[in-house]
């Protein structure tokens, strides 16, 4: 979801209705621009980043159906290029992970798998999460047993899962996780016990929306980013499937305040630095992805920390919004 400009107004409402009530649909064949016979992609970068994009001069970018998923790569985390040979496909709010010789790209209700050993790019396939009546904003992680774990925001039937129903003065947004079913290769999951985090949301309060979880490990603890609109709250737990609590080292647990949201995080074990990717929209400008590098997560990200990754630096038009980064290291 995109800084609530997208998700609250259009995307999450449609997704909530779709995924909160019925199984996630597979995109119509006309929307799918890949096939199982696709040529091998030139994936050579050390790091991978997915995002969705939309050219504002050619489409209504508030309509999630106009979003296209892109896969990019980098050797340093700062300079990014779209993977040569990549054909964007219809999708929104992506996340990416590599496990063994397969790269998995998740969007709400579906996954695309690229097989590095064969060069085959699968068509989008539906994803089921048993125990979740509806789920949005998937973030994927590989646990210590090699299983894929999905973190997600529970859907809200008939309403925006990021906020409250129109007649509610407050509500709780629930963030859960689900474990991959053995042998399903990323298609089937079962919800883990308890919620990973809950956030009290109020249309008139300080937290009006909460969505877009992102999970990563920093060597000592698990870190969960949750978007409060264009801001990032940080939560931690000593266990992957534990109960996450807001960071006590940050003011009110906030890593950013109105300077970037819908984030992806990474801890580099070599430099011992934290990388945070987020998207940001200036008024009357295109949405860009920005990266901040910190030695610790004890202080909020300041404006001077950000490095801009723009659409034109990726070879897209200057009228294109790029949003919702998902990050992974390109190694088995």
Q: What does the model show?
A:
By secondary structure, this protein is mainly beta. The chain is built from one helix and 25 strands. The chain has one helix at 7-21; strands at 47-55, 68-74, 81-82, 89-90, 95-99, 102-107, 110-115, 120-121, 125-126, 128-130, 135-142, 148-154, 171-180, 188-191, 197-201, 211-217, 222-228, 231-237, 245-246, 254-256, 261-268, 273-281, 287-294, 306-309, 320-329. The strands form five sheets. Strands 10, 11, 12, 13, 14 and 15 form a six-stranded mixed sheet that branches. Strands 1, 2, 3, 4 and 25 form a five-stranded antiparallel sheet that branches. β7 and β8 (120-121) form a beta hairpin. The protein is globular and about 50 Å long.
Gist of the model:
By secondary structure, this protein is mainly β. It has one helix at 7-21, and strands at 47-55, 68-74, 81-82, 89-90, 95-99, 102-107, 110-115, 120-121, 125-126, 128-130, 135-142, 148-154, 171-180, 188-191, 197-201, 211-217, 222-228, 231-237, 245-246, 254-256, 261-268, 273-281, 287-294, 306-309, 320-329.
């Amino acid at each position: 979801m995109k800084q609530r400009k997208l998700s609250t107004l259009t995307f999450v409402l449609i997704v909530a209705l779709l995924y909160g009530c019925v199984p996630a649909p597979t995109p119509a064949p006309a929307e799918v621009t890949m096939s199982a016979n696709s040529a091998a992609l030139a994936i050579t970068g050390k790091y991978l980043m997915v995002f969705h994009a939309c050219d504002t001069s050619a489409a209504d970018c508030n309509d999630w159906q106009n979003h296209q998923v892109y896969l990019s790569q980098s050797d340093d985390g700062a300079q990014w290029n779209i993977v040569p040979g990549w054909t964007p496909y219809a999708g929104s709010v992506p996340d990416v992970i590599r496990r063994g010789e397969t790269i998995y790209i998740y969007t709400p209700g579906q996954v695309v798998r690229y097989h590095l050993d064969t060069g085959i790019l699968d068509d989008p396939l539906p994803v089921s999460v048993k125990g979740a009546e509806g789920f949005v904003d998937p973030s994927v992680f590989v646990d210590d047993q090699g299983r894929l774990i999905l973190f997600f925001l529970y859907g809200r039937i008939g309403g925006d899962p990021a906020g409250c129903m129109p007649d509610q003065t407050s509500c709780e947004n629930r963030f859960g996780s689900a474990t991959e079913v053995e042998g399903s290769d990323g298609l089937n999951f079962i919800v883990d016990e308890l919620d990973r985090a809950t956030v009290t949301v109020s249309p008139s309060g300080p937290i009006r929306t909460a969505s877009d979880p992102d999970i990563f490990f920093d060597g000592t603890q698990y870190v969960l980013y949750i978007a409060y609109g264009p801001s990032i709250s940080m939560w931690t737990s000593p266990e992957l499937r534990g109960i996450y609590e807001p960071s006590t080292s940050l003011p009110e647990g906030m890593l950013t305040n109105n300077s970037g949201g819908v984030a992806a995080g990474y801890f580099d074990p070599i430099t011992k630095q934290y990388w945070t990717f987020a998207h940001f929209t200036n008024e009357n400008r295109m949405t860009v992805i920005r990266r901040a590098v910190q030695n610790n997560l004890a202080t909020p990200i300041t404006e001077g920390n950000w490095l801009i990754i723009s659409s034109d630096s990726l070879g897209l038009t200057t009228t294109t919004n790029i949003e919702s980064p998902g990050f992974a290291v390109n190694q088995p």
